[in-house]
Automatic annotation (TrEMBL):
Taxonomic lineage from the root: Bacteria, Pseudomonadati, Thermodesulfobacteriota, Desulfovibrionia, Desulfovibrionales
Keyword Ligase part of the UniProt annotation: no
Gene designation: secA
Similarity annotation: Belongs to the SecA family.
Residues where ATP binds: 87, 105-109, 494
UniProt EC number: 7.4.2.8
Protein name: Protein translocase subunit SecA
InterPro entries linked: Helicase_ATP-bd, Helicase_C-like, P-loop_NTPase, SEC_C_motif, SecA, SecA_CS, SecA_DEAD, SecA_motor_DEAD
Keyword hit for Nucleotide-binding: yes
Catalytic activity: ATP + H2O + cellular proteinSide 1 = ADP + phosphate + cellular proteinSide 2
All residue ranges annotated as the Helicase ATP-binding domain in the record: 89-247
Membrane topology label: Peripheral membrane protein
Cofactor: Zn(2+)
Organism: Desulfonauticus submarinus
Keywords, ordered alphabetically: ATP-binding, Cell membrane, Cytoplasm, Membrane, Metal-binding, Nucleotide-binding, Protein transport, Translocase, Translocation, Transport, Zinc
Length: 835
């Protein structure tokens, strides 16, 4: 009650914020008359002067009114589009590093130009991130006229560019591209060997278009670069053949809500007979058990033409949020191979992770981040908690007059689809355009068949027919048009009403079922009623829909039975609509918790990733690498001679072990007779002799040889570490049974694994250098990264390996190692300073 009174008196937080930036809007408007008098050349010249001032350190905030006024005038002269006041507000919100929620048709693409130009003046680059290549190219070309007019350069990053083309695009003032391309370029750069091979600049400022799709819907899918592993694929085909012999609810149970499969006691015995093993849960049979569970998931939880399609002999994932195909993406943990076996196509070999990052952690690398979407307010808490981004709801330029009718609910899907066809028929008769949103390819094709029987002409837009997407959507507002589309129609392209359609009531939206997320429903509704146009929307549901079946209240079902409802008779009630929205809220909260948990686990990896990647950069750019090698020698010798600190009298066995280590790592018997243990100082002196000999042999190539072996050792051990961390993560949940917090255990054990990896990087580097002998002229090309070929770029991809996680021993941190706190400093200058 108190909050209600406060809002009435002082307005909501959103209203107070909008009021606070109103003076800025007025200042921009006051500059319009004098900017209009400038010639084209004078405008370019002024932008150039402001660029010089910005590069010298002048605050962009102080330049905002003048720059926005210049951009508005440039929009009029190049695009015949003048920014409205509400679009100026959107531009201010983006510049301040917030999310602007703007309804469909309010001109988000034009709004971005204001903040883009202002931030481009710093000379550090601006990234505009879109959901697909088509939109990246379209927006760069369309808004590029405005940018070029003001003397700013524009680049586009799309699939298929080589490194030189990418570098050129990143060096432009403004770079458009997709989230996948930006993320993969970051990972690829952190696998390069020479500074001149890097394509990206420092991550300065990004505006993410459709920010909810990228930062929330795709947050559970990590970007992964992987290389082929040596795992055999025959087991997938073998296990796939036995799946038809297993019976649901007898041998195994399915939980559709959680998307999990569990074997029953009876099922385990049955499988042991089929596979001819005595104990399926014996550690040596863990791979068999894993393959069976993945094959069951493939058969019972993943549906063809819903979750994936089969095209050109490949299983291609369909994005559940947009309905778009995701070629190159593969399900993790052998699930994709299980689907390939199920569909009878070639089972591709599993891959080993070489580099990975989640979108959540990639976008948190930018100094400043902003976003735009038509639907963000429902996820405002998540944006704030995970990305520290505030959501500001921007008012519409004209009042929204679309009618959103209550949902109608039928008992069965058959009744529901017949009702949808009746409604389409009525609209078609009067000439009103209709856009029908479906949740899968399968449903869109079923509806298409029903409309053909009724002789109603229509277009189908789904992942199978996405080539004409923009053209089909652009015409969807014309008189008499019927368009059936999966969720892909909800993004990026405006539906403009054709002549005479406004008078008929505008575009009518039909939703064939509710999505798990309210945002997806709101996006579909938002295709109608743009810029004050008339329009309407209605969702048709049935008790057999997934959301209703899994999460809907049973009370609705019993109510329909009590009312003695006849076939084809619906319920249309606001209370029912509210009950469904509550079910959606529960699912959204559940999904948020999943994303939050994933992020907490990835944060452990992220700290380690930051340490490794910053050390990699240091190695790439350092002119003199000898001090690093000397630090490595000291740290390894500390470890080798550690038993001397612990024992006063060394027994022959320990002496033997230390001598063996000196031979194995440093090749010390090459320059020293090791009949008895040398002192630490003597050992170091002779190791330096070996390296001096290498230096003389290598001549001018010495630094590059050091760089090559340092980076090669770092990359090889990092790759192994990623595999070990995957193994650790897979089994960590079991710690809960021992009354231990799995997340805390993951942090502790992950830290120990990381310390071991740092030790092995040093050991392997020194082993390689001390055993290296150069007897001919060195060819610079030999020091290229050998693992850059045959890499796969995919989302959510992991692999099993024959290698087990390394056994750890307790070990102190080397003083010259990167500090485990993630600061990027050496341990001795950070947390170890006072120890």
């Amino acid at each position: 009650m108190f909050n209600f009174i406060v809002k009435k008196v002082f307005g909501t937080k959103n209203e107070r914020y909008l009021k606070s930036i109103q003076p800025l809007v007025e200042k921009i408007n006051s500059l319009e008359p004098q900017i209009q008098k400038l010639s084209d050349d004078a405008m370019r010249s002024r932008i150039n002067e402001l660029r010089v001032e910005a590069e010298k350190g002048k605050s962009l905030d102080k330049m905002l009114p003048e720059v926005f006024a210049l951009v508005r005038e440039a929009g009029k002269r190049t695009l015949n589009m003048r920014h409205f006041d509400v679009q100026l507000i959107g531009g201010i919100v983006l510049h301040q590093g917030k999310i602007a929620e703007m309804k469909t048709g309010e001109g988000k693409t034009l709004v971005a130009t204001l903040a883009v130009v202002l931030n481009a003046l710093s000379g550090k680059g601006v990234h505009v991130i879109t959901v697909n290549d088509y939109l990246a190219k379209r927006d760069a070309e369309w808004m590029g006229k405005l940018y070029n007019f003001l003397g700013l350069s524009v680049g586009v990053i799309v699939h298929g560019l080589d490194d030189e083309e990418r570098k050129k695009a990143y060096n432009a003032d403004i770079t458009y591209g997709t989230n996948n391309e930006f993320g993969f370029d970051y990972l690829r750069d952190n696998m390069k060997f020479y500074p001149e091979q890097l394509v990206q600049r420092e991550l300065n400022y990004a505006i993410v278009d459709e920010v909810d799709s990228i930062l929330i819907d795709e947050a559970r899918t990590p970007l992964i670069i992987s290389g082929p592993s040596e795992e055999s694929t025959y087991l997938y085909t073998k296990i796939n053949r036995i799946i038809p012999r297993l019976k649901r609810d007898k041998d195994f149970e399915i939980d559709e809500k959680l998307k999990t499969v569990t074997l029953t006691e009876e099922g385990i015995k049955h499988l042991e007979q089929i596979l001819k093993v005595d104990n399926l849960f014996d550690p040596k049979h863990i791979t068999l058990q894993h393959h069976v569970l993945q094959a069951l998931k493939a058969h019972y939880l993943f549906k063809r033409d819903v979750d994936y399609i089969v095209k050109d002999g490949q299983v291609i994932i369909v994005d559940e949020f947009t309905g778009r195909l995701m070629p190159g993406r593969r399900y993790s943990d052998g699930l994709h191979q299980a689907l390939e076996a199920k569909e009878g196509v070639k089972v591709e070999a599993e891959n080993q992770t070489l580099a990975s990052i989640t979108f959540q952690n990639y976008f948190r690398l930018y100094k400043k981040l902003a976003g735009m979407t038509g639907t963000a307010d429902t996820e405002a808490v998540e944006f704030k908690q995970i990305y520290d981004l505030d959501v500001v709801v921007i008012p519409t330029h004209k009042p929204m007059i679309r009618k959103d009718y209550p949902d109608v609910i039928y008992k069965t899907q058959g009744e529901k689809y017949r009702a949808i066809v009746r409604e389409i028929k009525e609209m078609y008769k009067v000439g009103r355009p209709v856009l029908v949103g479906t949740t899968s390819i399968e449903k869109s094709e079923l509806l298409s068949k029903m409309l053909k029987k009724e002789h109603i002409p229509h277009e189908v837009l789904n992942a199978k027919h996405h080539e004409k997407e923009a053209e089909i959507i652009a015409k969807a507002g014309e008189k008499g048009r019927v368009t059936i589309a999966t969720n892909m129609a909800g993004r990026g392209t405006d539906i403009v009403l054709g002549p005479g359609v406004k008078e008929l009531g505008g575009l009518h939206i039909i939703g064939t079922e509710r999505h798990e997320s309210r945002r997806i429903d709101n996006q579909l509704r938002g295709r109608s009623g743009r810029q004050g146009d008339p329009g309407s929307s209605r969702f048709f549901l049935s008790l057999e829909d997934d959301l209703m079946r899994l999460f809907g209240s049973e009370r609705i079902s019993s109510l329909m039975t009590k009312l003695g409802m006849q076939e084809d008779e619906p319920i249309e009630n606001k209370l029912v609509t509210r009950a469904i929205e509550n079910a959606q809220k529960r699912v959204e909260a559940h999904n948020f918790e999943i994303r939050k948990t994933l992020l907490e686990y990835d944060d452990v990896m992220n700290q380690q990733r930051m340490v490794i990647y910053s050390q990699r950069r240091e190695l790439m750019f350092a002119k003199d690498l000898e001090p690093i090698i000397y630090d490595f020698i000291d740290d390894i010798l500390d470890e080798v001679y550690a038993p001397l600190d612990e024992k006063k009298d060394l027994d022959p066995e320990t002496t033997k072990l230390i001598i063996a280590k000196l031979k194995e790592i440093f090749n010390l018997d090459r320059v020293l007779k090791l009949k008895e243990l040398p002192s630490r100082e003597e050992a170091k002196e002779n190791i330096l002799k070996i390296l001096q000999e290498l230096k003389e042999q290598a001549g001018e190539y010495y630094q590059e040889i050091l760089r090559y072996f340092l980076l090669e050792s770092l990359d090889r051990n990092w790759k192994e570490h990623l595999l070990n961390m995957d193994h650790l993560k897979e089994g960590i949940g079991l710690r809960g049974y021992g009354q231990k917090d799995p997340k805390q255990e993951y942090k502790i054990e992950g830290y120990e694994l990381f310390q071991d990896m740092l030790f092995y990087i040093k050991e392997n580097t020194l082993k390689a250098l001390c055993h290296l002998k150069i007897e001919r002229q060195v060819n610079e090309e030999e020091f290229q990264h050998k693992e850059e070929q045959n890499l796969n770029f995919a989302g959510a991809e992991k692999t099993e390996s024959k290698k087990q996680p390394i056994k750890r021993k307790s070990r102190k941190i080397g003083r010259n190692e990167p500090c485990p706190c993630g600061s990027g400093k050496k341990y001795k200058k950070c947390c170890g300073a006072n120890k």
